[in-house]
Amino acid sequence: MLHRLAARPLLGLVPAALLLLAACAPAPIYKPSAMTVAAAPNMVAQDPQHYANADVIWGGRVVEVHNFPDHSEVEILAYPLDSSQRPKVDGHGGWGRFIAVTPGYVESFDMPAGTLITLSGRIVGSRNGNVGQANYVFPTVSVSQSHVWTAAEMESGHSNVSFGIGVGVVH
């Protein structure tokens, strides 16, 4: 009987601990609009007309930057986003590629290949191109906002606490 009474106060701590861990995760940076669709770039590439003028919140790794006289185009390999809209690159395959079009000049030195980015924008069409020797359809997004993630931001909100049975090694 005493054992059961001692365990009761601990039961109340479990929900509080879970809420505390959830509070550590940063809030999403972009609020979806009524026009925001939850389709991945590879889905949009299959039927671009169906998604014309839809808003998206996408993210991933920068592949390369191309600058033109009045705008820049950033090719991005898309990944799913976590609850804070950070690209989830570990253990996830890419969701296809897309072209982010932004007015003005994007300094490729500030956004080298591999940089993690999340953006919000509107699908304005698609473009045929190549990835290596393969033909590819790139959805094109007119960017309204973008955020380049730092290593510290990618780590913030990731708890170092885990539950389980067994042996763990931390590097």
Automatic annotation (TrEMBL):
Q: Which InterPro entries match?
A: OMP_Slp
Q: Which domain of life is it from?
A: Bacteria
* Signal peptide feature range: 1-27
Where do the coiled-coil regions begin and end?
Answer: none
Q: Which GO terms describe its cellular component?
A: outer membrane
| Pfam families in the cross-refs | Slp (PF03843)
Keywords for this protein:
Signal
Protein name in the entry: Slp family lipoprotein
Source organism (scientific name): Dyella solisilvae
List the top taxonomic levels of the source: Bacteria, Pseudomonadati, Pseudomonadota, Gammaproteobacteria, Lysobacterales
